[in-house]
Amino acid sequence: MGEDLRQQLTPPDKRVKMSSVQVECVVKASALIGEGPVWEESEQTLLFVDIAGQKIHRWSPTTNQIQSVETGDTVSFAVPRRCGGYAAGVGRSIVAVDWSTQMMTSMLEVDQDKPNNRLNDGKVDPIGRLLAGTMGKETGPAEDERQQGSLFSVTSDLTVTRHLSQVDISNGMDWSPDQKTFFYIDSLSLTVDAFDYDSNTGHLGNRRVVYRMEEGEGLPDGMTVDVEGRLWVACYNGGRVINIDPDTGMRLQTVSLPVMKTTSCCFGGPDYSDLYVTSASLGLDQSERRKQPLAGHTFRVRGLRVKGRTSNSFSG
């Protein structure tokens, strides 16, 4: 039996250590929907959000301290800005966050014709352009209004361009090391897609599927790309992160976690060899909570023998 298959067959509450890979719960944030991890190299801290908990968190592995800012509405991502502070997706607005004063200032609003939408995942491209998607608000756990979302880009002068519409749940995104391919997840399609990407104009073209989720893997959620151009996809309701070769469409590795609602991931640490994985607890019943006491916490995976890349800062 191959190692990948053995890991998948391990019961969820036992899947903590596999060969040289170690999974450790490092941030006990008890998030309702932990999401959007970003490693801040300058501060050596992990930035992430709790969407339904309406908080932006910043955790230092050196001190093991968490600082938080309350946002007053759903917050789906937070990314560093080149001019300092952060840009965050709060409700349908992209806001500037001054961490020192905990003040937020709205920069722009999207989907003004769809008041029941909210922003979801967002990430900055290599030249400082912000890409962010929307979705219909949840009517229940993992139940959303279909095809209400879009994918937008925002440039340094706050020009907004809509690239995709009729999206179900705009989710994970990242770029290939050569910046010529944009990887994207619309969760309910159960695929990871790729586009040709022009970093000068932000134009997307030639959409194609690079991976189709298999039975038991759950919904594709947040993702990151390593220095070798391979994808690491968090699988919501799958209790795992899968490593995909986008050139062959093959799953190379499965990292299993002791929680089922794994939501997103990013590389971090001094040499970017640690994989941080966020999770959710919202929607678990009492029985599931007893079996998954670490749900909503953030995990650090070591021993993957691969490194990530530095995160980008928004130029706006």
Q: Considering DSSP H and I runs of 4 or more, what fraction of the residues is helical? A: under 10%
**Main β-sheet description:** 5 strands, antiparallel
Output the radius of gyration. Answer: 18 Å
Query: How many DSSP-defined strands?
Result: 27
Helices and strands, in order, run as: HEEEEEEEEEEEEEEEEEEEEEEEEEEHE
Average pLDDT confidence is 92
Shape: globular
What would the CATH topology be?
Neuraminidase
The CATH class: Mainly Beta
Report on this structure:
With 316 residues, this protein is mainly beta. It has one domain (22-302): Neuraminidase (6 Propeller), CATH 2.120.10. Helix content is 4%, strand content 53%. The protein has helices at residues 3-9, 286-291, and strands spanning 17-18, 21-27, 34-40, 45-50, 55-60, 65-70, 75-80, 86-90, 93-98, 103-109, 117-124, 130-136, 138-140, 143-144, 149-154, 160-167, 170-175, 181-186, 191-198, 203-212, 219-225, 231-236, 240-245, 250-256, 262-268, 274-279, 298-302. The strands form 7 sheets. A 5-stranded antiparallel beta sheet has the order 1-2-27-26-25, with no helix packed on it. A hairpin with a 5-residue loop joins β17 and β18 (181-186). It starts with a helix and ends in a 14-residue tail after the last strand. Residues 33-281 form the SMP-30/Gluconolactonase/LRE-like region domain. It catalyses: D-glucono-1,5-lactone + H2O = D-gluconate + H(+). Keywords: Calcium, Cytoplasm, Hydrolase, Metal-binding, Zinc.
